[in-house]
Amino acid sequence: MSIYTLKDQRVVIIGGSSGIGLAVAKQTIEQGGQVVIAGRSIDKLEQARQLLGNGSIEMHPLDNRNVDELQTFFEKIGSFDHLFTPGASYVRGPITSDLEIACSCFDAKFWPQYNAVKYGVPYISSNGSIVLMSGAFSQRPLADGASYAACNGAIESLGKALAVELAPVRVNVISPGTIHTSFNWEGAEQAVRDKSYEEYTRLNLLGRVGHAYEAAHTTIYLMTNGFTTGSTLFPDGGYILR
Length: 242
Known about the structure:
By secondary structure, the chain is an alpha/beta fold. 42% of the residues lie in helices and 17% in strands.
């Protein structure tokens, strides 16, 4: 049997009812791991439970922007081995955007991950890992997302700092390019998402949008390789190289 496995390990995924988080949950179960998923939508959690199988999954409603709910969540679930924190919704805009847009990524993506680690650390195995999620926009920003680029860069720096602070617990970051999932920018039309997908195929080396299972595979690697910490991996189809 490969040493790179999640068999009999407990994986917590905040934002695990759809997209990359759901794909990570599926691959964890395929490896014999146990999954705890949390998210704001009870309907999506129920759909995920049906897809993944009732015997392999534990689910909890959670607003990851609410610090009290995060603290209570970790107290309730107790000990675990790995934490993945992909859940976020936000809007992107230029430097002239109003404060709400400028803050949306930090409010929905940076601070929820920061606080999840803060309250999850007392319960994580010393041989375990944390995988944060940023985005390849951190390394190759376009002209309409200064705060979004800054937020993703901050998450990648946070991963390095936490790898030092929390060792031997390993902390890494996944920084995907555009991934084809049901997730959409908050308030955006389907046509906006489709246009984004079309544009992305021209921006990376592989000429296509990524799939959730591909980003999940990178996440599983970061959980199972016991000698990788403080790293950021880019399943982005070569977006940052184009």
